[in-house]
Amino acid sequence: MSLDEEFETIFAKHKEEKDITSFYKETRIIEEQLKKDPNLLSLENQLDLYLNNGHYFYGIDDPKTAIEYYQRAWKYAEALTDGSRYFTCSNEIKAQIKLGLGHAYLALEDKNQASENYKENVFWSTKRIVTGHTSVYSYREVNLFMLQDIINKEITVVSPKLVNDPFDCPIYSNLKSFETNDTIRDIANEMRKVYRYIKIRSFVSNKKINKTNMPNSNKSDTTAPEKENRIFLMWSHYAKDHTGICIKYKIDAQFLEKDEKQKIASIMYDVEYNKPSLNPSDVISTFEQAFATKNQCWEYENEVRLIHYDPNCNADFKSLPLGEHASIEAVYFGLRCSPRDIKTIREILKEEVAYYQMKEDDEDIFKLVEVPLNDRAKAMLKATEA
Asked: What is the reported pLDDT for 219?
C-alpha cells in the first residue's frame, strides 16, 4: 500500500467518525516519513494532513503549534492547480485555513495577526471561481439614489445594518448571542469588526446560481411562480406602490473578480428561506448561511444576493462600477410611474436599453403584464417567448 493510500484510508475514517485525536495519532508515522521525503504524499493529502492536525493542536490549547501546521497547510493550498481535486473549492479551503490562523493568533493574544487572518478569511469566503452570466432584477423607487446609479453606471451596495429587515443576516444576531460566552466572546468581537466591511445588494432571479456556474440563459425558470418583473408585492414594497421601476441587469462572472492585493472580492448567493425559526446561538457553519439566510416570510422575493467585501471601505455605502462585465438590459416602468419619470430615465439611458410599461392583465386583474415601448423591447420579448 502506498503512503497516499494509507493516508486516504485514515482520512476517510476521520471524516466518518469525526475523531480528530485518533486522526492525529494515526498520522504520526506518516509525518515522520514525510520529513525524509515530502514527495511520498500528494499535495492534496499533505494539505488535509496539516490542516486537520492544525485543528487538533488548536483544540488541545496549543495555538503555537497549530499555527505551524496551518502555515504548512497554507503552503500547499497556494500550490493547488487546475488538475487538483480541490481546485474548484480551493477558496473555501483557504478561508478555513485563515480562520484557523485567526483563532490561533487570538489565543496567543496577538490581535493584529488575528485580525489580518480574519480579514483574509472573509476575502477567500467571498471569492469563487465562476463562469457564465446571469440576469437579475432590481425594484427601485425613482429617487436621487436610483438616478445616480443609472447615470454613473453603478450598482450601490449597502451595509446589512441599513436594510429594512434587521434580521437579514443571521450572523449578527449569532455573534451578539456569544457576548456572554467567555470561550468565544473574543472571537465574536473580532469577527464583528471584520464583518463591518461587508456590504450587500439584493436582486430578484428565478434562475439558481450554483457553486461554479452562473446560468447562461435569460429565460425564466418555468417552475417559478411568476416572471421576475411581475411580482405584485415587490412593486408595492420596493418600487413605491408601483410608481417606481424594475431594472434588469446582465452580470457576467468577471464582475465578481477579486483583487488579491487589496483583498476585495464579491460573491453571489441564492438566499435560502428554509428556516421558519433560528436560535441565535445555533452554529452557523457556512458563509452562505451567515449572510444569505432569511425568514420564510420573505420567500416571495426570490432573492439573489450580491455580497461585497472591501476591508478598505468603512462607509455604509459603496458604488461598484458596472464596467465591461455588467449592464442594464431593460427597464420596466411601474403601473403608476409618471410620464415625466419615464421620459427622464429614457433620456438618461437612451435607446440602448429595452423599455416596458407594466399594465393590468386583460384577463386577470391580479396579474401584471409588460408592454414593449421600443424596438429593443419588442425583440427581447419575442426572444424570451420563443
From this structure: 46
